[in-house]
Amino acid sequence: MRVLGVDPGLTRCGLGVVDGGRGRSVTAVAVGVARTPPADELPSRLSAVADEVERWMDLHRPEVVAIERVFSQHNVRTVMGTAQVSGVVALLAARRGLPVAFHTPSEVKAAISGSGRADKKQVTTMVTKILGLAAAPKPADAADALALAVCHLWRAPMANRLAQAEARAAELARTHRARLEAAAKTIRRGDARR
């Protein structure tokens, strides 16, 4: 499976493409950053990020897009820009029929380093090792995008199994309720005949 990881941001939007193989085997395909000048107007910046993400989708043909889930920060302006970029990327993926997965920063850190509290340097070091890269991806946004893709590849099989188990449990519950209702009707009919 090929995953496009996106670390959303207006000034620097990290992009990373990773292929997943058997088990936990992962291979880096591409990594980079879409940049926009802070002095530009918001619509222009969002358009520039969208153009770059579309270029990456055309070039690398991902099967799924993994985006970092926006979390509350002290700087509301930064959160808004990050959320807007996330929305643009999710829209681009949806228009292509690509599934979108959102992962929290702590999920990504835990998947990559074993600790949900790992710092950016630890994540970058682990991504470099996991993917067998000759040099650490820079800036941190690029490393984070690769981390998102790897996180999704490693978490998706378990999430799929959980979803299948939940669906099976719901079906069993529906069947059980239907049997109980049928038994209750039979009992009521028997009581009515007496």
Main features:
single chain, 194 residues, alpha/beta, Nucleotidyltransferase, domain 5, five-stranded mixed beta sheet, 5 strands, elongated
Question: Can you walk through the features of this model?
Answer:
This protein has 194 residues and is α/β, with parallel strands linked by helices. It has a single domain (2-165), classed as Nucleotidyltransferase, domain 5. It has five helices and five strands, in the order E-E-E-H-E-H-E-H-H-H. The protein has helices at residues 42-60, 76-95, 105-113, 120-130, 140-193, and strands spanning 2-7, 12-20, 26-35, 64-68, 100-103. A five-stranded mixed β-sheet has the order 3-2-1-4-5. Strand 2 and strand 3 (26-35) form a beta hairpin. The N and C termini lie far apart (64 Å). The model has no long low-confidence stretch (mean pLDDT 91).
Helix and strand run: EEEHEHEHHH
Quote the CATH topology: Nucleotidyltransferase, domain 5
Helicity range? 55-70%
Structural class category: alpha/beta
Strand content: 15-25%
User: How much is the radius of gyration in Å?
Assistant: 22 Å
List the SSEs and their pairings:
Layout: E1 2-7, E2 12-20, E3 26-35, H1 42-60, E4 64-68, H2 76-95, E5 100-103, H3 105-113, H4 120-130, H5 140-193
Parallel strand pairs: 1-4, 4-5
Antiparallel strand pairs: 1-2, 2-3
Helix pairs in contact: 1-2, 3-5, 4-5
Summarize the structure.
This protein has helices at residues 42-60, 76-95, 105-113, 120-130, 140-193; strands spanning 2-7, 12-20, 26-35, 64-68, 100-103. The protein is of the alpha/beta class.
